[in-house]
Design goal:
Rossmann fold; OB fold (Dihydrolipoamide Acetyltransferase, E2P); 5 domains; six-stranded mixed β-sheet; about 25% strand; endonuclease activity; alpha+beta; 39 strands; 25 helices; RNR_Ribonuclease; five-stranded parallel β-sheet; hydrolase; Ribonuclease II family protein
């Protein structure tokens, strides 16, 4: 049946036009019940006659998704009208709902009510879209009841009073979420409900005595924010909370071109880390200077008076103490542009991991208890929840979701989602790391695994005879990787040619031969985006049969590859470049240590060692030429753990050592990535996936310049070349000095990001750190989905395959690039969090004295970096409540902090002796405490 569906919409030019679309209606859409006598029962989800089938409305899905995900809730009809409405309102909830509907272990069924002739409803004159959708839900619920008859009960779940009233009048059974959950007889499920915020909640809002009631200002409406941003009164940006002080946050504003500091919970005005906010800049007399910035003590957690803006009387004494006796520097201390949040443009609320603040059990140990949830991540405020299972939760790591934060409430309100495990258990704490960073560690589904070829797999005669694939098995190809690497996605060869030149090849695992566009395997990899490396395990982007066997370029087995092959002169100039799909057979899988040992041992003259030395010689020339162009050699504090293979406990910890062999491999991977970027952009200028690294602003580099100046260094930051040369000259008597300066420089940089070439102009493609006009990722398709996309682009540019249709959809490509950037950053953060977790495990029974370098001065102490272990943390000079002799003065220009009487002084980059010990200043929040010896 064909229906005409019409609606009006406004064009970009402001004209209102009527749109008429054909809407097809069918009578053969199945209901999903296996016991139905009318429908085809293939793929049915509801199997038990007599059970209750729930029809949920849109708001129930949007607000109660945590409840729906609980296995106690099943036999749910998700109407297409609800699915579409959820997709338009909250993409995150939509994805969770789709996952429920596609999970074969859950009984959630999508019914296309909008295309069934008996359930489609036309909008009536004067009826709002919301009312029309509510009516469509009631009509579908009524149809289900008539369709299945007495075989089962249909229950519509809604919290909308008007919708429920109309359902009752129309003879449809309906209940609120709470009344239905109560009927299940599982009180713990009630903890999962999002509770409406009422004035009664205010009565129980402060769970312990407070010096002061905190009242936040109302958020401005979006219309006023939009006008204010257009006029320059307000500025938009993402709020980032300082990991060492949760009362200090920063908003990077493009309209100003600088960061705005937000100091104190009052000025943050209920914004969470990661929220997109609108900020009003305070008058200049209210701006903070560097001396005012503190490292927050653990017990400062909720002492808001200490952390209000400097104009507040509560904060004046502490800041005065910092400045006392330093009038000669008071006028010279640089002020930081300061502001306050006036509105939330986009919330970043997600699931938070932590534990309940210890408290006494209520009398009788029954009924609802009000508790404070403390996030494991100090950047987030405490969250008030209600629970009926307090006794079971007090010693557990749990997940809590935020529901509301009223302007008259000191804490946000939320609800319990689920229990992770016992506090302190390594498996529990590792799961916390994964959840906090949104890393999907679930096993691959049967649909995904069904996309893999059967094992054992080997190169077939068809592969060898395929004209698109060149047989390179005769070449002496080898790989160089970290020790114990199983997912080997790159290999190399270097052959001397009769003309004195070299043929050099980079061979990359041909992952796209097995991962085809649009398959469940490809969709899963698209979503995961990257593999995540924790201290004791790896969370794969692709299933292990692919990563460790079929695609891994292991020694002495034939494998499929995508090869970039150059002819190079002996001074590393490229004569020609070619790209080909290939079959290779690696002759050696070396570790970095093994490769380095071969190159260093002058007695070894075998072919592989000779190839290594030739490659290293070329790599050194290429590296020098790249640095001459302005590439910056940065440094990071990479930590390496030695882990017990059985218990997974850390046995030893130290800084990761970079060898010439590492740099050799890196140089040729960079060269391959640049070559492929040039090739794909030439063929597909509008839809290539590239990687850019924006130049840091002068404001971003300011902390580095101040630190350098305080130790007598004059860094030139006018270009990447000037900065690279300055860093090369930054040497001192301390052998670690240069690396420390490079680590500080790294922290001033912007993030490198993926983007679609059609979205930007060529000058914006530039990669600042590599000093390269073009760059992409091609060399790790086993671990990164970006490289899978680039492999498809390269194959299409060579005429091997057609470009998949998705490359014609630029918004979709941009969405994929955004997800890749999000996943890449999350994987980095998870790796760091895993290192922090294992650092605490390692030092828990090993108190240690060691050497550290001061990297940042604060009003009550400084941040130090520990070279031996790659650890960074705060050292306090003034403890809270300390009386007499505890006053310290910050000299911002000299980057020093000294006692008022001048008896002791500490400066940035100075070496200090510290004691490291794991302590627990707050229950369930162990930390590595660093103290001066």
């Amino acid at each position: 049946m064909l229906q005409s569906k019409s609606f009006v919409r406004k064009t970009k030019q402001g004209k209102v036009v009527k749109v008429v679309r054909e809407h097809y209606l069918r009578d053969d859409i199945y209901c999903g019940a296996s016991f139905c006598k009318v429908c085809d029962t293939n793929g049915a989800r509801f199997v038990s006659p007599g059970s209750t089938i729930l029809v949920v409305d849109t708001n129930v899905v949007l607000n109660q998704i945590d409840l729906l995900e609980n296995t106690a809730i099943d036999d749910v009809v998700v109407l297409s009208v609800v699915l579409d409405e959820v997709k338009n309102k909250n993409l995150g909830v939509y994805n969770r709902l789709r996952a429920l509907c596609s999970n074969s272990l859950r009984r959630f069924f999508v019914f296309s009510n909008e295309h069934h002739k008996d359930t489609y409803v036309k909008a009536m004159t004067g009826e709002s879209p919301n009312d029309r959708n509510d009516r469509a839900i009631r009509v579908a619920a009524q149809w289900y009841q008539n369709h299945l008859g007495s075989a089962t009960k249909i229950l519509m779940i809604t919290n909308d009073r008007e919708n429920k009233r109309k359902a009752t009048e129309e003879g449809i059974s309906s209940e609120t979420v709470e009344s239905y959950v109560k009927s299940l007889g599982q009180p713990a499920l009630l903890d999962l409900l999002v509770q409406p915020h009422t004035s009664e909640d205010m009565e129980i809002e402060d769970l312990r005595p407070s010096k002061k009631k905190v009242i936040y200002t109302e958020h401005k409406p979006m219309s006023e924010i939009t006008t204010g941003m257009r006029c320059g009164f307000y500025h938009q940006g993402k709020l980032r909370v300082n990991r060492y002080n949760p009362f200090e946050a920063y908003v990077g504003s493009e309209s100003i071109g600088d960061e705005i500091i937000i100091f104190g919970r009052e000025n943050m005005n209920r914004a969470f880390d990661g929220d997109i906010v609108a900020v009003e800049v305070l008058t200049q007399d209210q701006w903070l200077n560097e001396k005012s910035l503190h490292i927050a003590d653990e017990d400062d957690e909720e002492d808001d008076g200490v952390h209000l803006a400097p104009s507040s009387a509560d904060d004046a004494p502490r800041i005065a103490n910092s400045a006392q006796g330093s009038s000669e520097n008071a006028n010279n201390a640089p002020s930081r542009r300061s502001g306050r949040v006036v509105g939330i443009i986009k919330r970043n609320w997600h699931a938070y991991c932590g534990s309940l603040e210890p408290m006494a059990m209520p009398a009788g140990n029954a009924g609802i208890a009000h508790a404070l949830f403390v996030s494991k991540d100090r950047r987030f405020p405490k969250i008030r929840i209600q629970t009926r299972q307090l006794g079971n939760l007090l010693d557990k790591r749990i997940i809590v979701a935020v529901d509301t934060w009223d302007c008259q409430s000191r804490y946000p309100s939320g609800h319990y989602v689920r229990t992770i495990g016992d506090i302190g258990d390594r498996e529990t704490e590792t799961e916390v790391v994964l959840i906090e960073n949104d890393i999907d560690a679930k096993p691959f589904t049967s649909q995904v695994l069904a996309c893999l070829p059967p094992l054992p797999w080997s190169v077939s005669s068809e592969d060898l005879s395929n004209p698109i694939r060149q047989d390179l098995r005769h070449l002496r190809i080898f790989s160089v990787d970290p020790p114990g690497c199983k997912d080997i996605d790159d290999a190399l060869h270097c052959t001397s040619l009769p003309n004195g030149n070299f043929e050099v090849g980079v061979h990359i695992a041909d992952v796209t031969n097995f991962v085809h566009p649009g398959t469940p395997l490809d969709n899963e990899a698209t979503q995961r985006g990257t593999s995540t490396y924790l201290v004791e395990r790896r969370i794969d982007m692709l299933p292990k049969p692919l990563t460790e066997d079929i695609c891994s370029l292991r020694a002495d087995v034939e494998r499929l590859a995508f090869s970039v092959i150059w002819e190079m002169t002996s001074d590393a100039h490229v004569i020609s470049t070619r790209y080909t799909k290939s079959v290779i057979k690696s002759c050696a899988a070396l570790s970095y240590v093994e490769a380095q040992a071969r190159m260093d041992d002058s007695r070894l003259l075998d072919p592989v060692t000779t190839d290594l030395r030739n490659m290293n010689m070329l790599a050194k020339i290429m590296r020098a030429r790249r640095i001459e162009r302005g590439a910056i050699t940065l440094a990071s504090a990479e930590v390496k753990f030695q882990v017990d293979t059985e218990t997974h406990d850390p046995l030893d910890i130290g800084m990761y050592q970079i060898r010439e062999a590492n740099q050799m491999v890196e140089e040729f991977m960079l060269a391959a990535n640049v070559s492929v970027a040039e090739q794909i952009l030439k063929s597909f200028p509008q839809c290539s996936l590239l990687r850019r690294h924006p130049s840091p602003t002068k404001e971003m580099l300011e902390p580095l310049l101040r630190t350098a100046a305080s130790v007598g260094l004059d860094l030139d930051v006018s270009s990447s070349k000037a900065l690279a040369d300055s860093l090369d000259r930054a040497v001192g008597e301390d052998p670690y000095f240069n690396k420390l300066i490079r680590i500080l420089a790294t922290r001033c940089m912007t993030q490198a990001v993926y983007f679609c070439s059609g979205e930007l102009s060529p000058p914006e493609f530039h990669h600042y750190g590599l000093a390269a006009p073009l760059y992409t990722h091609f060399t790790s398709p086993i671990r990164r989905y970006a490289d899978v996309i680039v492999h498809r682009l390269l194959a299409a540019s060579l005429g091997i395959y057609k470009l998949p249709p998705i490359f014609q959809d630029r918004p979709q490509l941009t969405s994929i690039a955004d997800n890749l950037n999000y996943r890449h950053r999350n994987a980095q953060m998870a790796s760091r969090a895993s290192i922090e977790l294992h650092t605490i495990i390692f030092f828990r029974k090993r108190p240690t004295d060691t050497e550290a370098r001061i990297v940042k001065i604060r009003a009550n102490g400084f941040i130090v970096f520990v070279p031996k272990y790659g650890i960074e943390g705060p050292v306090y000079l003034t403890m809270r409540g300390e009386k007499g002799g505890g006053e310290w003065v910050v000299d911002e220009q000299q980057q020093k902090i000294r006692k008022i009487d001048g008896s002791i002084s500490y400066g940035v980059l100075q070496t200090v002796q510290i004691h490291m010990e794991v302590v627990e200043p707050q229950p369930n929040r162990p930390k590595l405490q660093l103290t001066l010896i």
